[in-house]
Amino acid sequence: MSGCLVCPVCRRRKEENALIREGGAYRCCSGHSFDTARAGYVNLMLSQQSSKKRHGDDKQMLISRRSFLEKGFYEPLADAVTECVTSLAGESAVVVDAGCGEGYYTQRIRRALPRADIYGVDISKDALILAAKRGADITLTAASAAELPLASGCADVLLSIFAPVFPEEFARVLKPGGTLIRAVPLEDHLYGLKSAIYDNAYKNPPESGELPGFQLDRIKRLGFELSLESREDIEALFMMTPYYYKTSRADQEKLLSRTSLRTQAEFGVIVSKAAKI
Predict the structure, then answer these.
(1) Which residues pair with 25 in a beta bridge?
(2) Which domains does the chain have, with CATH numbers?
(3) What pLDDT is recorded for position 1?
């Protein structure tokens, strides 16, 4: 695979020179070369991007997310996303997971589409190390979703699961009429968790599903109750959310002293079509 990767240096110069894998490196015809890390991904972040202090989710958040997801708590969402992809993509489709994290959803797509050309892109190298350990046949790339190192019009389907959205860049990478699938938290998502922490819990803002350059096809609402029966599971859920890093120590302890928690999970799986040129 890797037929859609393009040189990030050349892309900055408004060229799209393909990257060809030669041994343990990817090279373009202009002589730029990028080594494949032992961990199993290729780093295509340029120095300006790498100089940022934080590169995506930190290691503790990723480990917590992996622990929580591997216990199947979000399996209904994974099933809904996978079903959506397989209903829209052919067996040999090009699928891009922009903000793939530790690869839980990407791996599910790989299992469902064994002949597809699948790319996982994330700015966090720690996330890609965990994704590579899943052993799936996926091209993993360290890069920003705002500047994807992928050829214009190469992808049939692009996924964005709880990740930042860059409509113009996503439309560039998708084929005309290609599909963007997003998973977003809806109004009541984790309201029980927030109520256990904050005196004045708030709901998430409503989601319209509209994006510039895309035509909304449908929104599937998915809701179910999470029943957590251990401090370990409560902590894993809490630490995989941004709330953990925005909450005082006293409020953290208020939640983490509990041994059980019930909270609503509510997602929107949003399907949009890239505008045809």
Answers:
(1) 22, 35
(2) 53-274 (3.40.50.150)
(3) 52
pTM: 0.93
User: Any idea what DSSP says for residue 18?
Assistant: B
Instruction: Look up tokens 């927030």; give the residue.
Output: 194
Residue 274 has φ and ψ, to the nearest 5°, of -65, 140
CA 196, CA 264: separation in Å to the nearest integer? 12
Which residue type, as a one-letter code, is found at position 84?
C
Give yes or no for residue 54 having a pLDDT over 50. Answer: no
Segment 148-175 shows an average pLDDT of 97
Residue 31, burial from CB neighbour count under 10 angstroms (0-12, 13-18, 19+): exposed
Torsion-angle region of residue 208: left (phi > 0), alpha (psi -120 to 50) or beta?
alpha
Which is it for strands 42-43 and 139-142: parallel, antiparallel or unpaired? parallel
Pairing of strands 25-27, 20-22: antiparallel
**Which residues make Cβ contacts (< 8 Å) with residue 50, sequence separation at least 6?**
none
Maximum separation of any 2 CA atoms in the chain, in Å: 59
- Report the C-alpha gap between 12 and 8 in whole angstroms: 6
CA distances for 212 relative to 138, 148, 167, angstroms: 29, 18, 6
pLDDT of residue 2: 63
Residue with tokens 């029943």, as numbered in its chain: 227
- 23 burial level (CB within 10 Å; 0-12, 13-18, 19+): exposed
